[in-house]
Design goal:
The complex is a heterodimer. Chain A is globular, with a radius of gyration of 18 Å. In chain A, 63% of the residues are buried. The longest helix of chain A has 24 residues, at 131-154. Chain A has helices at 2-10, 12-15, 37-54, 90-107, 131-154, 175-188, 218-226, 239-255, 275-285; strands spanning 27-31, 60-74, 77-81, 87-89, 112-120, 160-167, 193-195, 230-232, 265-268, 294-297. By secondary structure, chain A is of the alpha/beta class. Chain A has one domain (23-297): TIM Barrel (Alpha-Beta Barrel), CATH 3.20.20. By secondary structure, chain B is mainly β. Chain B folds into two domains: 3-43, no CATH class; 65-180, no CATH class. Chain B has three helices and nine strands; from the N terminus they run αααβββββββββ. In chain B, α1 packs across α3. Classes of the chains: A alpha/beta, B mainly beta. Chains A and B meet through α1, α2, β1, α3 and β2 of A and α1, α2, α3, β1 and β2 of B.
Amino acid sequence: MRLLACTLALAAPLAALPAAAASPTPLSAWYMYGASAGDLRSNAYLHGCDFARAQPGTSLRILLLDFGAARKLDASTWGAVDFGNTTFSNAEILAALERSADGYHNCHVRGSVDVLYGTSNYQLSGSGMSTSDAWYAGYHQSERAKNLHDYQVSKGYSSQTSDAAGDMEPSWDGQLITKQLVNGDQGHGWALYYDFGSADGCPQNGSADGVCTNGWHVSDVGYVSFHGPAVPLPEIYYGANAGQWTVVRKWWDGAQSSDYFFGGVTASTGVGLAPSAAWNTLESLNGGLVDSELVCFGC
Amino acid sequence: MLTLRLAAAVVAGLTVGAGGGFAVAGAVRDEPPEKAAALERLGSVATTDSSTEPAPTPAVEQQPIPARMLGSEVPVPIAPSILRARNGWLVSDGKTLVAVYAGSSGSDPSLGRVVIVHQDLVAGKQAIRIVDAGPTGALTIAAAPLGPSVETSAQTGEVRLQTAGGRRLVLDLGGDKISQVAHGASLP
């Protein structure tokens, strides 16, 4: 604690700020649609600019772009299929991510940003992908996040960095193949892997390794959200979701050597909990363990 | 704002360039070693760019997307806790985009539900609307305008839905409302 006190004193400008008790301002995340790679780049540029203009304060915030389901496109090409059933290679997605970095730079007012290359585990095996393919999907996500970071550095975008993310939903595929996304990211070794998925069907109380949807257990959700480079940014759309994720945190703390924390909350408009209520509900069950980050689809 | 991890980074002796609230509780926590390097990187991000040179602005080259049905193999952006999707439909005229996903509530399979994603492609804004149909069971999109000739008109038109029991409903995209099909009405 003495070290902490000294450090806080040295970080006076930060320490003067209030403790993170109130919910952060929600910032937009986007589902990516595009008829072509050009569309994707245009959309990403606009999202980067829109995000920068809306960003309050001087802190580091997450810009999450969800490109759809991770896919192996051919023998040596990985990428994603978007929400309109258009496939994009990782090279095309990287070009779009670079445009989002340009948009953020051109419209930057204050603060800094972590641009996330997001995909999902939607029907990985149903599309013909093996567990090895999923591992490489995660590997290349981290690789592309690193490529984006290299671009940000080369352009002098010092207020930016980049990482990877996965909407990992138990309903959408099995736990074994989904874990390979995280393992592949870890194999590459550069990007954090934010889990903006759910603990669908998991128990809402207790700390046991209970059963969730589709053969998953609480421990599996713990793995994809906190193993290695994984960081939970859980969907909290209803009060029950906060209970489910609290069980995941309690299970992890009881079974693993590191202490589980939440990287923030993923919220949405039109659901049971408004974005600020979503963050507050998770924080109320996990006091001091929820980072001050609130990404929001539809905001 | 990543305050807990940035706090940990400060404890680790790093310079923190990003502001934000400071959570003391987080500062005494052990950081998992596999995340350490990335967390250090987050702690070193500045709040200004070293380059003041504007990036080139890309030409806005949005192409229309002819109205199309989306089968179960197409990824659904909506979480299963909100919607257990059966199918979807999408159209864009290059300026605005509408996507409709039909199914049932994630927590109550008897509750029919559609989720509508509206996007303003010029402004970069996206909005999500959830519309419930009541105790109909899972909804399926049974018929909707298709093809390139309806890329604008279909966005405020009608989409026909079918309930689990075979009853027909209509989703009016002009107001995002579900109602009964008028007897004898033709499909779009």
